[in-house]
């Protein structure tokens, strides 16, 4: 397969044949072997928000590939960046952050793969109460809850779920739980994946918006396009939420 370059701001993807690029190891979702092709997720390290943009763009590709019936997953540790760089042109200042195998998975699984898959399913998702701040849940409009539920289901390295959400009128801010990365995989990449899920959840609830990228522990803020969608009004000494 010839290399294919697809650009998206400070991130891009490149496609090629698997060859010996995956290290043959396995993660919590099982072994990866025999995949005919892969997609590499590449970031320009000269830009401050490249990690989350790679996660955002990459998850969009993975979700679309899954919709088309392909088998994919994020691989952030068990691949050979130097082998990928030899097959796909990497400009100075660019870095391969992750890859995803592309192909059609077999129907049956070995006992080892079944055990690994069961272990992955047993990993619990954090409750929204552990992940959110700002407005109390009782004051969330429907689109916020739908968006957060979608973001909560996003994949992350070893299911660490490093994202946190602050809910305010007409916007949701995504932050990382700490600035210290682990497992040699950026937490901001995980947050970019969650950002894609959050936006798709909002769209499913009929709300569109845009992302403004931030610095430090705050990653980005999703702002609804209609800023008058909901507001607070006072009456008889009580606060009423107007939708």
UniProtKB/TrEMBL annotation:
Pfam family, one: TM1586_NiRdase
Domain Putative nitroreductase TM1586 stretches: 27-202
Record CDD domains: Nitro_FMN_reductase
InterPro entries with a match to the protein in the record: Nitroreductase-like (IPR000415), Nitroreductase/BluB (IPR050627), TM1586_NiRdase (IPR029478)
Highest taxon in the source lineage: Bacteria
Coiled-coil spans in chain: none
Gene Ontology terms, MF aspect: oxidoreductase activity
Name this protein carries in UniProt: Nitroreductase
Annotated source species: Desulforamulus profundi
